[in-house]
Queue: 4 jobs
Job 1
Amino acid sequence: MSGTQFALLLKRRFLPVFVTQALGAFNDNLYRLALIVLVTYRPGLSWSLMPEQLIAIASGLFILPFLLFSAAAGNIADHHDKARLIRIIKLAEIGLTGLSGIALWIEDPVLMLIALFLLGTQSAFFGPIKYSILPQHLGPRELIGGNGLVEAATFLAILLGSLIGAWLVARPGGKEWVIALMLAVAAGGYVASRAIPPAPPQCDGRAKTTGLLREISEVLVPALRQPGILWSMLGVSWFWFMGGVYVSQLATFARFVGADPGVVTLLLAIFSLGVGGGALLCNALLRGRVTTRYVPLAGLVVTVAAVDLFISAPEAAVDGPLMTAGAFLSSGYGLRVCLAFSALAIAGGIYSVPLYAAIQSLSAPETRSRTIAANNILNSLFVIAAACWSFFLLTAGVTIVGLYLSVALVNLAVTILLWVKLAR
């Protein structure tokens, strides 16, 4: 690799995978946010449920396939050409996007949820491949840079998909634009996947189906028996736990400090761009070496930033007009919040990328997809745990800044543990 990690964007062995992944992440969030906005502002779509309850169901249906099918996806990916599998998955995405478009067009909540589950399923099958294919196409000293680019693009795609989906569907004729954009992006993802170089299987034999629960066990147990991989996976899963708490509760936080929805968008942008920026910084910090040396330091920065949010928080703003994004930024506290979220997000990017690269480099080539599938299963469990953690603490009367502080304090313990287990 010459120059910086951005030289990889000129390589066929990286660029098509990079584009395919980014477009898929964009499409998932474009549809998910369009669905959420429709449910929120069209109460008739929610049956007898509150909109927030249906949104929670939708979030659960999207994450459920990662628990159910990641093991099977990893098993299949280890036994077949990964480039060919990606093309099959992306071709299926075009059909699923069409189904999603029909659901949006007729505003059928059952069909919308079914489509969301199926989109989650195709993402679950793509998940183990997108990370296990990188070590086949990249050199050992390119893994940090490649993972940083993928992570940055993923968070940017999530941000843009969320913002555009929410904005478009709320406009007159917006559903038609969302549907057209989804189909165009899905087609673009398939076209990009056609350029991915072959990535033949690195293990012998054929994939064997042993049943859902047993297959999950057969993927998880071997990975959990390898300390370096185990602690790296737990570190990544904790990153998703923190993101699950901080990002999912941004609207609650904004309302607590007396800010309007524009501030939610502002903080979401800061968080997504911050994680992406931190991910890109990793290559410069580590100079291409796969090492977790900066993970504990990044974890410590996350804790300090979250503690600052708690210390500087004003009293809950119950009454009065809500602050716009401009008013929020012009206030001393608002600027401090933005700086704290920036530090937290950048540290999160520096924290997560080396852990992903460690999982890839420590995994045996013949079982790498299954190891990454095990990581995806753990990630999903931690995301669900984050939702439960938030629900129970907020229900018990803990304020949103108190919730953020609780995660920061646990993160301090996790950081110390990872420093002991992974310092190298």
Job 2
Amino acid sequence: MFTWPFSDRARLAAARSLVEHFAPIMNSRVSVQLWDGSVLPLGPNADPDVRFIIHGAGVISSLLRWPSLDNFVRHYAMGRLECAGADLCTFTEMARGEGIKKFRHGLSVWKLAGKALPFLFHRADRSAVRHVIKDSSGWEPIKHNYKQMLQFHYDVSNEFYQLFLDPEMVYTCAYFTDWNNTLAQAQVDKLEMVCRKLRLKPGDTLFDAGCGWGALLCHAAKHYGVRGYGATLSAQQVAYCRERIEREGLTGQVTVDCKDVNDVEGQFDKVASIGMMEHVGVRNYATYFQKLHSLLKDRGILVNHGILRGAKRTTKKFFKSRPEHKFIQKYIFPGGELGHIGHVLEMMEQNHFMVHDVEGWREHYVLTCTQWCKNLYANRVKAAELVGEEIVRMWAAYLAGFASTFAKGSTRLFQIVAVKQRAKGGPILPSARNDLYERPFPSEMPETGHAKAA
């Protein structure tokens, strides 16, 4: 029977042929579901319930004409492409397959071109997302832009974040004293580790730059007797923090303002910058560390915790914008920028900090992002009711993507301990690091016990 080469039947036949061609090469454990409902395995051990769903021939037409990550993400966000049967981290791992490295070698350009022909003259789907910032190029230290960019990400909904974060609402890398610990345990241990690195003691004043939902401030106040102050430009985070402070009986001991860090005044015994540096912009590191240095009393301690990338052979190569960077800036963290550890240490020392410790937590963030992704998938129905399917899909893609980049090592996480030491005097930090580990962490204590400050 003759089939018109540009009919839907021809497009379905071409799509099936392509999947059948790629399946033995990829040896993947997922299947592909076409727009007619047919399910095709992408390998001999493919699970028919874990499927990559293509909801129309127009999607393939679009991707063939504009083969970019941005176009792919837009189709995924709008539900034209779908991953079903597993959270996105698990799906990605299953889809990778044993033969993914051989994929390019087994790819027949001529066969691809022949099978693509029925799609090239078909109308392409044009998926347009709503949650996008119009100008995400670069990062300028302009306050109203800075606030807009931060609120774009954090003011989506407190209730939305509660669906995938831990009970303490910590939105930075957890610390797993045991890889089998739950996310909730690991986040409390992380708060504890930061407090220990700061060498907090009763009566200390602590400033938390970009304090999030207030977990570190409240933990430090309750368990170390400090007086805490936090600043964030997220109006929803401030509202949550103030309600939390009152609920936990910390009124007068902990305060939070909706304020730019550059506008904070005064001096503090200790300063924490946990997950704030990613928003600053590499070109603004010097200004940022100058500000933190001015806020810290002499002989005070800073813990700086942030995501970074690996260094490149040249500065030009390092700053070359990649598709995944553009995706993050356009749809998730507008203005976000990641430096490398060498440059950060250089900027800290140029601005009079004395660096004592640098600790890599990359593997911890792989597990953190994976747990967030799984939690979001488990609560996807409620999440969609709160913020819509588009944002849920975007956040799932970003969490799964970050888990993958941390696993590969293209992104890293470092905690840096530094001090401000102008006046003469003895050592600020202990001679050894035993005090960080000699007491059990909260997750290692029976029931709900907590390791007390020394």
Job 3
Amino acid sequence: MERWYEVAKAIHWKSFMEVSKTFGSADQTKVASGHTVVIFDIGGNKYRMIAAIHYNIGRVFILRIMTHAEYDENTLRNEL
């Protein structure tokens, strides 16, 4: 998490393509609200961090951190 924070703090992403160049395992998905969130693997792939990235203002909002098992339950898309 600390490594992710240091890298993300130093970069102003303008698109998901730039995010995926920085963090190759990052993925994005639409959730029930219709918004797109980005999923990051953290902690040696033991955890998933779900974030909303507002590219236009250069802000990243961490919405949830969950274990790999919690993420695999696939309730995320209905909750956000």
Job 4
Amino acid sequence: MVITDKIWEQLFPSVDYGRELITRKDLEKGIENGTYQLFKNDDCSVITASFAKTLRIGIAGGNLDSLVKIEEKVEKYAKKRQYDNIEIVGRAGWEKVLNGYKKEKVILRKEI
């Protein structure tokens, strides 16, 4: 099992927030086949997906301070794999706590 109960508890509010049509099983399958990437630590988890030269953070949950820190790991991953941008699809409040992102419609984008 790729997504433990603890990880799912962290991610579920983000998945459920917009009544997304993705399940735990969908996420596990996507992680296993490389469609999605999982970044985690003890108190937060993030799911990313690739869109051309952009790495998109689509699902995230857990402790806010830890999420801000884990974004640094996501950025290092993106730079190493030569992405041009990181995007965050989420609530507008993220733009208040993450540096370098600008609001573009409902997507926050950071050039790297």
